[in-house]
Predict the structure.
Amino acid sequence: MSETREKTLFTPSLKRRGLLLVVSGPSGSGKGTVLSNLFERRSDLFYSVSATTRLPRPGEIDGREYYFLTQQEFESKINDGGMLEHACYCGNYYGTPRSAVEEQCDNGIDVILEIEVQGAMQVKKAWPDCVTVFIAPPSPQELERRLRGRGTESDEIIKNRLDTAMHEISHATEYDYIVVNDEVEESASKINCIMAAEKCRASRL
Amino acid sequence: MSETREKTLFTPSLKRRGLLLVVSGPSGSGKGTVLSNLFERRSDLFYSVSATTRLPRPGEIDGREYYFLTQQEFESKINDGGMLEHACYCGNYYGTPRSAVEEQCDNGIDVILEIEVQGAMQVKKAWPDCVTVFIAPPSPQELERRLRGRGTESDEIIKNRLDTAMHEISHATEYDYIVVNDEVEESASKINCIMAAEKCRASRL
């Protein structure tokens, strides 16, 4: 047994597999800004594009905003296990095609998948090797300040958003990591560290 | 349940607990150089000093090289659960006192414990929250080069060292993380990342 282990440790695979990092965070968590900062540091990262059956809006390009699929194409992908997760909103499908993620990871490229809580849990089941990260606001007060800061919406709309965010936060402990976003640079740096650390995990080597 | 979770996430403990990082690596892994580099970056780290019953050598100071204990003191600590691990070499005890590690961690200070494989596994049992890191040489060839490079020892001595190192390496997969030490700066940076990432683990929050 020990010989096999030595061999494994000393025989790095020809190409190390890329990591799939699944990132969630409620509205007001600052997830978007943190991910932008991360992509500035790591131009080698691949951002996973979702697929949808809704029609493209003016200016949207297939493969950039979404992969635009027909309902038949989408359903056939679901049935073939070609979607890492999917959901239906307003009569349209949305989902994460497995093939693009697989191709990048096979080529040693790390993939970022930005997705809400339910989808993240589906991906974890379909791709158990993935690493899940929840970006959280520092406090309910700060969350409310950020949500209010966006515009002049009514108290009821703000309250609804706050409730949705708090519901998502209640799932944070189901993630592998929680990054409390006090400061954007620091949060992006933490996510970068999480990726570096995960690549050293003995269970991956 | 979700309310408790929100509360937990949003109520950081008054003082975050320090991390206990247990580091092993065979002779020739470059562990010493990597740790020196890490301590240069992180002056806030605490290096855990071992206890021993052997007599101090000229120049050695109690609490710096070792805590020097009598056999009775050492055995009473073992019996009281005051040692995270211990072993006997050449008729003397060597071990890691729990109290110093506990005090630093309670004060939010991260502790580095440099220790061989058997001791590391004992610590993991006594302190399940600890993070174990194995520093490995990049290849058996490089390991041999490093071990030979040290002096003009006979082939037999080199062979013995190599066997010992390979035996230790066969335990690498029992650690949480393996850092293959190709380059010192990079390895120290990885260990630093491992600590940052571990502090974001949902299971610690």
Notes: The beta strands of chain A are 20-24, 46-47, 51-52, 67-68, 83-89, 92-97, 111-114, 131-136, 177-180.
